[in-house]
Amino acid sequence: PDVIIEAQFDDNDAEHGQDHLQDTLTDDIKKLSLDTSEKGKTAGVTGVHRKKQDDGPKVNDPRLLPDEFLQRTAKVVCILEKKHSRAATGFIKLLADRNSELFKRCAMFSPVDHRVPRVYVPLADCPPDFVAKPEAYSQMLFICRIVDWKEDSNFASGQLCKSLGQAGEIEPESEGILTEYGVDFSDFSSEVLACLPQNLPWVIPPGELAKRRDLR
């Protein structure tokens, strides 16, 4: 019968040249011919065609299989601690499908951080003239906070918190980063400021210098 012989070619074959590869193919063909003739004799005597057994184990219960035959899977059942602030910096734009009901109610928020999903935000949170002039806000940074993500939706649901300003400027970009990481950058309260020395200019008291190591 017509037989296709596959041979692996590696660095050893390259070192020994084409003759080594030719010898390997010749040996494989001879071995296959002998195996075929032996099987033909056996089939002619017994009249029985034996089916080759599979190498894999025949086990109906997966718990009885060895570990190397198992693909471990898992399912998330609970979030114990939320590491992300659920706030993100990004841009808003109109939905692509203008004929859908969702177009009349929501806009699309695209985060700058691509690890955060895109978010549906209510049009009520957007600027009043956003629908009429969406291009005017194409480079305007906004802060959005994710509030929900339904199992049957490709996008999360959120609310626009505030407009930061023009993208690329230092202050809006810095405020967006601080908000995403949950850093409180608001002004100190009067109670905190009262803890600071009131008599200015303030100097380190000699008693403190005597019991501390000076690292200045």
UniProtKB/TrEMBL annotation:
SUPFAM superfamilies: Nucleic acid-binding proteins (SSF50249). GO terms for molecular function: 3'-5'-RNA exonuclease activity; metal ion binding; poly(U) RNA binding. Its main location: cytoplasm. Residues 52-62 have a biased composition (Basic and acidic residues). It is found in: Cytoplasm. Keywords: Cytoplasm, Exonuclease, Hydrolase, Magnesium, Metal-binding, Nuclease, RNA-binding. One of its GO terms (cellular component) is P-body. One of its GO terms (biological process) is mRNA catabolic process. The keyword Metal-binding applies. Residues 36-62 are annotated as: Disordered. Residues 107-182 form the CSD2 domain. Pfam families: OB_Dis3. InterPro entries: Dis3_CSD2, NA-bd_OB-fold, RNR_Ribonuclease. This is DI3L2 exonuclease. The lineage of its organism: Eukaryota, Metazoa, Chordata, Craniata, Vertebrata.
